[in-house]
Design brief:
There is one protein chain. It is built from 5 helices and 12 strands. By secondary structure, it is of the alpha+beta class. Strand 5 and strand 6 form a beta hairpin. The two termini are 31 Å apart.
């Protein structure tokens, strides 16, 4: 297992539920000065599927619903259902900002990475050991799969990342993270999607200006919470 990524910088994150028509108009604006994430396919997007974990008493779900901070979400994430790698991630909300720690899990290690504490001092071992400790002490277990198609744009100044998530689905088949044929169900009204705007420090004025003119309302939308509602 390799590829530990610790994001010490707290980032701002704003979410808006918008229509697909608004999303199409916004994309035309974003193309003018932002670039697609290098991992996007020829269609300009990629599919994300995440397996979310929670404690026996659903402590993470309750903290999110109550707005408690600091709070964490633990998940294992795949991109385009890659058979090669997935990622263990802990996303934290601290003082209204976000932080994400992540490490790569090779597919051949997926079924065993959380069985034994690490003592090798590798950068990713701390995150994995935290995950194992929660499994031991809080009976951490998989609760729901969240799947969606993401259109990602990036801008280097301010580390800006603007994403539009379509086709948000939930599944209770928590054993099927890598199975393309699991049963899923939509969790948003037809024609709706989620816009996320993330940045570090200051959001450049011209980027903020591009987001204006739409009927967007700030939302506390949590994919995990809404997908649990339909599980």
């Amino acid at each position: 297992m390799t590829g530990f990524k610790e994001k010490n910088d707290l980032r701002y994150e704003m979410k808006y539920e918008i229509s697909k028509v608004e999303a199409a108009c916004l994309i035309q604006r974003l193309k003018c000065c932002m670039k697609l994430d290098s991992h996007a396919s020829e269609k300009g997007m990629y599919r994300i599927r995440s397996l979310y974990y929670d404690t026996l008493d659903d402590d993470f779900l309750k903290a999110n619903l109550d707005g408690t901070e600091p709070r964490n979400k633990w998940r294992i994430r795949t991109y385009d259902l890659s058979p090669d790698v997935s990622y263990l991630e802990c996303k934290s909300k601290i003082r209204g900002m976000i932080r994400k720690d992540s490490c790569m899990i090779k597919r051949e290690d997926f079924d065993t990475f959380d069985k034994k504490y690490r003592t090798d001092g590798a950068p990713e071992s701390s995150l994995i050991n935290r995950f194992i400790m929660l499994k031991d002490q809080k009976c951490l277990s998989p609760k729901v799969i969240v799947q969606y198609d993401r259109i990602p744009y990036v801008y280097p100044v301010g580390n800006v990342r603007i994403t539009i998530d379509h086709n948000i689905m939930s599944s209770t088949d928590t054993d099927g993270l890598f199975d393309p044929s699991i049963k899923v169900r939509p969790v948003l009204e037809t024609g709706r999607c989620l816009l996320e705007v993330k940045w570090t420090g200051i959001l450049p004025d011209h980027i903020a200006h591009m987001l204006g003119g739409f009927d967007m309302r700030w939302s506390t939308f949590s994919k995990y919470c809404i997908c649990r509602r339909y599980s």
